[in-house]
Design goal:
The chain is mostly helical. The protein has one domain. Strands 1-2 form a two-stranded antiparallel sheet. Strand 1 and strand 2 form a beta hairpin. The mean pLDDT is 89.
Length: 478
């Protein structure tokens, strides 16, 4: 079997699992766990293949791009898919151990969410990015409502409303780009956009601007941030833990289009606006964490702060800062997810023997040594300090980190004496998986930094991405 067929596996496996869970609900746990392990294994293989320098392109229907739909597993896409697999495996295990998976259709919805996230990270087409966003959102709506009380229902309603607005804007943006370019392949758009003139260029700029607004909304960047703390702090912590990577999709989408179309549509003024939004988000998150009194709220503000940091470094133009941001993406999601799960233990009065996980997760979210988020943030800050015009942003990130640390320390100290029932072995295993992932990335920092440095250089020179997508040959050479 040609290796490129494995690119669709992170999408096909959760889809198959969701179907089987509906057909055999009594076996849903076993099916979901088997799918999770298989998806994780494929993700590891995709990262290993990308690390060797081979980007894999899968042409759906065996039609060449730009006429067909292409999926691409390069260093960035494979890295994001692996981060997704690691986080969602841990959250799935915890949900099973805590009995959070007993709601109607939990496992099919969870697999649909997983399929949507993976598809968004792997697609090379704007319209299919929209499709996978919607698939992901359908799963997240259902998961957020699992066993929901009135407070959770209100939080979910806000989440649904803001994302429906984002979906409408996304469709308008895609329609504008297709109307003037006749294609929605990201690679083909990168070639066609520079040739636009007059009214066509104005329409393309409008479409790109709307697309940027959508990505900022998904990333919960200021001034579109209000929904995230209320939603993530309002739904059950176990549900919020599965959402930690969803905001990363907004930052990922921004990185993709800026790297491909930056010289054409996203000029210095656009980039400055996005970075200002990221800076405001980081500062707001620090202040919110400082003012929060519950662990789930602090975790929600931590997710918001990491989203703002990624927007800054992804648009900074510094290869070192970009590499640091790519390094930061997985462990920050692991630690934030673990913190939400610890909040779930406290909510159920089962934190008696979970203080170690509280300490590790809090250290990771705060960005303290020796965990991987600290090393990644340090690398990103080195890149920002290396550019004289970015010093202010670096100091702002440090100040916001101090605010987050203060808020986390206050809440963690209050919980240090919490008693109650002990957590069960499966819950401990899930938290060990997430916290252990962040610890393992600390010990593997050197090879990870080499990997992300090459990924950053590839994003700075998108010609290879364009060539890989448009020159991909269908199976059989048709």
């Amino acid at each position: 079997m040609p290796l490129q067929h494995l690119v669709i596996a992170p999408i096909a496996l959760p889809l198959l699992a969701a179907t089987l869970c509906l057909a055999a609900p009594r076996a849903s746990r076993a099916i979901s766990l088997c799918s999770a392990l298989a998806t994780l294994a494929v993700s590891v293989f995709l990262v290993a293949t990308a690390a060797s320098g081979d980007a894999l392109v899968y042409l759906l229907g065996n039609w060449r791009a730009p006429f067909g739909i292409a999926l691409l597993s390069d260093r960035l896409g494979a890295w994001a898919v692996l981060a997704t697999a690691w986080v969602l495996c841990g959250v799935l295990l915890f949900s099973i151990g805590a009995g959070r998976d007993k709601g109607a259709y939990f496992h099919p919805l969870y697999q649909v969410l997983w399929m949507g996230v993976n598809g968004a990270f792997l697609t090379a087409d704007v319209f299919n990015l929209f499709v996978f966003f919607e698939v992901m959102l359908v799963g997240s709506y259902g998961i957020a409502l699992q066993g929901a009380g009135m407070a959770e229902a209100r939080a979910t309603l806000r989440y649904v409303a803001i994302n429906l607005a984002g979906s409408a804007l996304f469709l308008i943006a895609a329609g504008l780009l297709y109307g003037v370019c006749g294609t929605l392949s990201m690679a083909d758009l990168a070639l066609r956009l520079p040739a636009l003139q007059g009214a066509d260029r104005a329409l393309a700029l409008s479409g790109a601007g709307l697309l940027a607004v959508v990505f900022l909304l998904k990333a919960a960047a200021l001034p579109l941030s209000a929904w995230l703390p209320q939603t993530y702090g309002g739904v059950s912590p176990a549900s919020a833990a599965s959402f930690t990577l969803l905001t990363k999709l907004g930052a990922y989408g921004m990185l993709r289009v800026v790297s491909l179309w930056g010289g054409t549509l996203f000029d210095a003024n656009w980039i400055a606006v996005v970075m200002a939004c990221g800076a405001g988000t980081v500062l707001l998150a620090g202040a919110g964490a400082l003012a929060s009194l519950s662990l789930a709220r602090v975790a929600a503000w931590g997710v918001l702060g990491s989203s703002g940091l990624l927007l800054i470094v992804f648009c900074s133009g510094s290869p070192q800062a970009l590499a640091g941001g790519l390094f930061y993406l997985p462990p920050s999601a692991m630690c934030a997810s673990a913190l939400f799960l610890v909040a779930d233990l406290h909510r159920r009065n089962r934190l008696a023997d979970g203080k170690l996980w509280l300490l590790i997760a809090a250290v990771g979210v705060a960005g303290l040594p020796p965990l991987a988020p600290f090393l990644a943030k340090l690398q990103a800050l080195d890149g920002l300090f290396a550019a004289p015009d970015l010093h202010g942003l670096a100091w702002l990130i440090l100040a916001a980190s101090l605010l987050t640390l203060t808020g986390l320390a206050r809440v963690a100290l209050r919980l240090a004496g919490a008693g109650g029932e002990p957590a069960n072995k499966v819950e401990h295993l899930a938290l060990a998986w997430l916290c252990g992932g962040a610890l393992a990335m600390s010990t593997l920092a050197a090879p990870i930094q080499r990997y992300t440095a090459v990924a950053a250089s590839e994003l700075a020179a998108p010609q290879a991405y364009i060539r890989q997508v448009l020159d991909a040959v269908p199976v059989g050479g048709r």
